[in-house]
Amino acid sequence: MSHEPRKAVVAAVALSFAAALLVGCSSGDDDAANGARKKAPETSGGEHTPENTRSARPPLGKAALKKALLRKGEVKGVDVEPLPGDEATARLALAGGGAKPAACSPLVHMAAHTSVPAPESRGAVTTSRDDGLVTSVGLLGHREGDAAKIVADVEAAVNKCTGGFRDEAGSYQDVVPLPDPTEGDEGVSYSMKSTVDGQRMPLTFTVVRSGSTLAIFFGTNLIEPDKTEPAPEVLRAQLAKLPD
């Protein structure tokens, strides 16, 4: 197969794969999802509250966040496409029953490009390379204190959930903490294996906080399943578009 047709096939499969994976991480209905958004807990007290940080940056507005997301043509050799149904999937993930054990729920939320508390703005795209690596990218706009607390919650979940967990769609095994990313203000990386509808999919996540914005990257590979580190050029390009 020539280079261009193969790239088109990989991009098409990547879109279907990413959408299927995100749907697998969610459950529920829109009314319940809206309720979950309204009931998302606020952070209170402690070092993560924005009131205790004089220089805390406000969340990106919806228009600014949309502008900050990667677009087609911005990363050489990488196809960038919208993620169909992403917004609805994120709402459903917040409305679902979460993970069992519940301490692992932040990992389910990251896979659906969302969080608790719910972001004030959000968006996601999926990227693919000709070698089969698919990197999904999500941006979440939060108050800075909330963003910092979410990173801490994800890190805690990774450390507590090494034995695996379940949600309403499937199971997740072999959760492994990885070295923290060096980009941004702080972050966390980890890998795990997802089993949904009988399909086992290795995944690698990198979550980076840049001020009040969370950038979520997770990689999988359609050709070489064990090479799932999110594409470094995608990570660099996306973080470069975020405000200082």
Tell me what you see in this structure:
With 244 residues, this protein is α+β, with helices and mostly antiparallel strands. It has 7 helices and 8 strands, in the order H-H-H-E-H-H-E-E-H-E-E-E-E-E-H. It has an 8-stranded antiparallel β-sheet with strand order 1-2-3-8-7-6-5-4, with helices on both faces. The chain is globular, with a radius of gyration of 17 Å. The N and C termini lie far apart (43 Å). The N terminus is likely disordered.
Structure keywords:
single chain, 244 residues, alpha+beta, eight-stranded antiparallel beta sheet
Strand order of the largest sheet: 1-2-3-8-7-6-5-4
Intertermini distance = 43 Å
Number of helices: 7
The shape is globular
Give Rg in angstroms.
17 Å
Q: What percentage of amino acids are in beta strands?
A: 25-35%
Number of β-strand runs: 8
Order of helices and strands: HHHEHHEEHEEEEEH
Mean pLDDT: 82
Protein structure class? alpha+beta
Which stretches are low in confidence, meaning pLDDT under 50 for 5 or more residues running? 1-16, 26-54
Please describe the biggest sheet, giving its number of strands, its sense, and whether it closes into a barrel.
8 strands, antiparallel
Helix content estimate: 25-40%
